[in-house]
Amino acid sequence: MTTERKASLIIEGREPAEFPIMTPTHGNDCVDIRTLGAKTGLFTYDTGYLSTASCKSKITFIDGDKGELLYRGYPIEQLADHCNFLEVAYLLKNGELPNQQQKGKFEMTIKQHTMVHEQLVKFFQGFRRDAHPMAVMVGVVGALSAFYHDAMNFYDAEHRNISFNRIVAKMPTIVAMAYKYSMGEPFMYPRNDLDYTANFMHMMFGTPCEQYKPNPVLVRALDIIFTLHADHEQNASTSTVRLAGSSGANPFACISAGIACLWGPAHGGANEACLNMLEQIGDVSRVDEFIKRAKDKNDSFKLMGFGHRVYKNFDPRAKLMRKVCGDVLTELGLENDRLFKLALTLEKIALEDEYFIEKKLYPNVDFYSGIVQKALGIPTSMFTCIFALARTVGWMAQWEEMLIDPEYKIGRPRQLYIGAARRNVAPIDQR
Ligand SMILES: CC(C)(COP(=O)(O)OP(=O)(O)OC[C@H]1O[C@@H](n2cnc3c(N)ncnc32)[C@H](O)[C@@H]1OP(=O)(O)O)[C@@H](O)C(=O)NCCC(=O)NCCS
Question: Can 308 be counted among the known catalytic residues?
Answer without folding.
Answer: yes
